[in-house]
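lol ok so funny story. i was supposed to be doing the assay writeup but got distracted and ended up predicting the structure for this chain instead. priorities right. anyway since i did it might as well share w the group, maybe its usefull for someone
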Amino acid sequence: MPLEALYSLQKDQQKDLDSPERNILDGFNFQNGILVVVTKAYFQSNKNGMDKDKVSDDVLGFCSLVLSYAKTATKKLQRDQSPKLYQTFMPRTEFNTIYNMVKSKFKGDLFDLFNNLACYTTKMDRIKGNTVA
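and the output, tada:
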């Protein structure tokens, strides 16, 4: 699935269940999971020289996927459980291959960028109580 399509579904996932704008194929109630939808606002600090107005949906989809999985690490799992339990999006392609699709669009140190993105919250995150350390 193209990362742009993944990003579109991730944004739909955040909408209220009864929203007429919600994707009709998505009937899953995702209240116990962690979904981080990275928007252009996350890049307002221009970290690594990445201009928020030039960040594309495939990059946003990749960042959202990575941060959603990373923030799942805050959940206590049983021995037979996987972080995938708390995700609605589970790529069948390994992360290296997915990263190679957007690699050329990243600038600077990837760890520094994700460290910055992981600490960022939007006003909507705070309203919905979605701030996860």
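Residues 57-71 form the longest helix (15 residues). The chain has a mean pLDDT of 81.
back to the writeup now i swear
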